[in-house]
């Protein structure tokens, strides 16, 4: 007879004792269960003990999380969290250095547990740790352990970062600014200051004033990947917290100190692989730097500005006036104005007064900046562009100014200029760090590409929008390849000719579209069930392989990873925390299990509880698109297992696989694409023998029956 559903068979172990195999009744109070376990080992005062999970982070079992205990779980009997907290905090006062170190090691191990953390915090544990940090008597392992324990306790959000005192923050800043410091201390100190900067504007200003940018540059130049990552994290946090004017000043200074060159040579092209966290911070740095262009992009040209009028004249003169030959020497003022207006039209402005073209925002003054940069840094290419098109027929000339304005808008869209930074994105471009003035240099390459494409298409003024669509596709496809330098980008984008774009479009269309003849549609419908079964099998195999998921708090990115996979018999989801840098663990070593039979539903996007807690800001769009949760029976209540997929593809694979386990249809975009690809391939294989044979829209008519059936053979007549 099967045991009741609320009874689980578990093992309880204790040091120097024979383990107990018991049946745990989840309906029984936890205190009563502890009493029975202690009685079996003849232990008095059961209130002094607590149960912990033996695997993973050895979390304490409470009434809130006891339903996570499953059949076969291994628990251990340990000191109650309040007594353990009291003991370890007492150990911090030990006169023995080894005693203090041992207490801190245990504190670091138990600090991730919320139950234990609350007990430590309620006993002024943070203040005691803060005192050790402020005193700074030991700058080695003791200080590193203290900082790590402090960070772990603060991560629970029980105490606000804004409550930290100014002397404490200054002391941590002192550790960052010291030259001779233990290598394990400074990454932790930098991480603590990053949290302070992101969480408290007032303390963030203190950190900004106390930590020189030169000091962060020194840390970035140390060949220690962890130290580099934390230094870059604090740098991007300081930049995000600065005002636009301060941010521009800071970035100008960093660029003058050759930060860009160092990042390109020693971080992007380092022998060690680039970590996810560093990739995110490089993305943020790129976005903030491109964000400096936003004010120019949002500002229209002022027709009354003398400086801007002079810039427009300089643009015209660079194209049409040789050096030392002023416009219309000896001509009247009216004649000079008429000649000037005609040349502005040749330059590609829609109006004789170019200020009217540049009143549009975006791109505003950024388009003028790009045109001036091109005329000054590539004067021969600029003159060739303008004069070549001036000599064409009016309907075939490529308007330089109009093209530049539209191309600037296009580049701002492709590079997300002015958009808020995503909290999870890692989509930075190595090319951005290979070149000074990367946006303007990219424009110079793109405007010459546009002229080349215009000639390949033999375009007229009516084809302007079509040309811009092709150029958008050329730029987007090349940027997606993430070329490592501007020269490589130039080479790749110039090989992507108009003919090549048409070929790629045709290939994609053939992949996406099949013939619409009814017989083919009928064949596809008959193939669908078999192919959907193949996709379902692939999704379940992917779940069995497992995936590393990243834990992301509502405040900032986290370093912590956890692994989840499906058991080979498709009965249980196995999961647990793993260390950063380690490979996928063996499924049998994972401490947590969730029976598939207990799963109620699959939730995605805004329906997930961890998305609702995070809020609905613009920066959470990427987070929302990658979030999904499993709701499952947790005793009498409903509980959730929350996921943040590492990529959109992993999101589709996992939601499809979980839907297949629950017997629900797999409705992701990836399933649609995979099914379409398989259907196209299978249909083509089936139709190989009918190549070049036209398939009729309607089946051929059935001929009428014959007038007689005398041709039938009568089998009953015996042969002679």
From TrEMBL:
Pfam families: ELMO_ARM, ELMO_CED12, PH_12. One of its GO terms (biological process) is actin filament organization. Gene3D superfamilies: 6.10.250.810, Leucine-rich Repeat Variant (1.25.10.10), Pleckstrin-homology domain (PH domain)/Phosphotyrosine-binding domain (PTB) (2.30.29.30). The keyword Electron transport does not apply. GO terms for molecular function: SH3 domain binding. InterPro entries: ARM-like, ARM-type_fold, ELMO_ARM, ELMO_dom, ELMO_domain-containing, PH-like_dom_sf, PH_domain. The keyword Transferase does not apply. Residues 307-479 form the ELMO domain. Keywords: Apoptosis, Phagocytosis, SH3-binding. PROSITE patterns: ELMO. Involved in cytoskeletal rearrangements required for phagocytosis of apoptotic cells and cell motility. Acts in association with DOCK1 and CRK. Was initially proposed to be required in complex with DOCK1 to activate Rac Rho small GTPases. May enhance the guanine nucleotide exchange factor (GEF) activity of DOCK1. This is Engulfment and cell motility protein 3 isoform X1. It comes from Vicugna pacos (Alpaca). The lineage of its organism: Eukaryota, Metazoa, Chordata, Craniata, Vertebrata. The gene is ELMO3.
């Amino acid at each position: 007879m099967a045991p009741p559903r609320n009874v689980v068979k578990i093992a309880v172990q204790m040091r120097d004792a024979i383990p107990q195999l018991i049946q745990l009744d989840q309906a029984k109070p936890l205190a009563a269960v502890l009493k029975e376990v202690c009685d079996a080992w003849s232990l008095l005062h059961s209130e002094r003990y607590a149960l912990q999970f033996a695997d993973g982070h050895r979390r304490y079992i409470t009434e809130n999380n006891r339903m996570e205990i499953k059949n076969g779980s291994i628990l251990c009997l340990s000191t109650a969290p309040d007594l353990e907290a009291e003991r370890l905090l007492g150990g911090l006062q030990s006169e023995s250095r080894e005693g203090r170190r041992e207490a801190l090691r245990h504190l670091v191990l138990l600090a991730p547990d919320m139950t234990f953390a609350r007990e430590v915090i309620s006993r002024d544990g943070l203040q005691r740790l803060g005192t050790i940090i402020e005193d700074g008597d030991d700058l080695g392992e003791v200080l590193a352990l203290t900082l790590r324990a402090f960070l772990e306790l603060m991560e629970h959000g029980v105490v606000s970062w804004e409550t930290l005192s100014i002397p404490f923050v200054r002391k941590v800043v002192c550790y960052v600014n010291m030259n001779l410091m233990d290598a394990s201390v400074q990454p932790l100190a930098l991480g603590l200051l990053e949290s302070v900067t992101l969480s408290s504007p007032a303390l963030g200003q203190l950190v900004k004033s106390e930590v020189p940018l030169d000091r962060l540059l020194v840390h970035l130049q140390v060949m220690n990947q962890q130290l580099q990552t934390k230094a870059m994290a604090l740098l991007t946090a300081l930049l995000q917290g600065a005002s636009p004017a301060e941010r521009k000043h800071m970035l100008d200074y960093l660029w003058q100190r050759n930060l860009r060159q160092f990042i390109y040579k020693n971080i992007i092209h380092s022998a060690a692989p680039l970590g996810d966290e560093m990739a995110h911070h490089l993305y943020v740095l790129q976005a903030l730097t491109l964000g400096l262009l936003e004010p120019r992009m949002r500002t229209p040209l002022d027709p009354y500005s003398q400086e801007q009028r002079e810039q427009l004249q300089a643009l015209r003169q660079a194209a049409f006036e040789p050096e030392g030959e002023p416009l219309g020497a000896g001509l009247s003022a009216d004649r000079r104005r008429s000649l000037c207006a005609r040349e502005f039209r040749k330059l590609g402005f829609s109006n004789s007064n170019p200020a009217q073209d540049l009143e549009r925002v975006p791109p505003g003054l950024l388009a003028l900046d790009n045109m001036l940069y091109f005329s000054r840094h590539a004067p021969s290419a600029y003159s060739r562009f303008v004069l070549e098109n001036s000599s064409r027929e009016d309907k075939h000339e490529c308007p330089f100014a109009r093209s530049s304005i539209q191309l600037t808008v296009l580049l701002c869209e492709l590079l997300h200029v002015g958009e808020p930074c995503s909290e999870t994105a890692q989509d930075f471009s190595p090319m951005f760090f290979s070149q000074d003035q990367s946006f303007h240099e990219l424009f110079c390459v793109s405007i010459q590409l546009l002229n080349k494409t215009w000639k390949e298409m033999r375009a007229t003024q009516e084809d302007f929008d079509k040309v811009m669509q092709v150029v958008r596709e050329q730029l987007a496809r090349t940027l997606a390849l993430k070329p490592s330098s501007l020269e490589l980008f130039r080479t790749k984008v110039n090989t992507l000719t108009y003919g090549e774009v048409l070929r790629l479009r045709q290939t994609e269309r053939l992949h996406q579209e099949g013939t619409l003849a009814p017989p083919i549609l009928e064949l596809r419908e008959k193939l669908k069930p078999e192919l959907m079964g193949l996709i379902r099998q692939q999704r379940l195999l992917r779940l069995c392989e497992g995936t590393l998921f990243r834990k992301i708090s509502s405040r900032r990115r986290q370093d912590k990873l956890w692994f989840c996979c499906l058991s080979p018999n498709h009965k249980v989801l196995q999961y647990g925390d793993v260390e950063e840098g380690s490979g996928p663990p063996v499924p049998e070593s994972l401490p947590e299990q969730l029976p598939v039979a207990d799963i109620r539903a699959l939730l995605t996007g805004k329906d997930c509880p961890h998305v609702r807690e995070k809020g609905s800001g613009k920066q959470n769009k990427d987070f929302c698109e990658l979030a999904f949760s499993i709701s499952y029976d947790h005793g009498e209540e409903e509980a959730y297992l929350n996921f943040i997929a590492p990529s959109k593809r992993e999101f589709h694979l996992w939601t499809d696989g979980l839907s297949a386990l629950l017997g629900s249809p797999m409705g992701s975009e990836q399933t649609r694409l995979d099914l379409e690809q398989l259907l196209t391939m299978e249909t083509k294989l089936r139709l190989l023998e009918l190549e070049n044979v036209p398939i009729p829209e309607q089946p051929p008519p059935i001929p009428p029956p014959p007038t007689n059936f005398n041709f039938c053979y009568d089998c009953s007549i015996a042969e002679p």
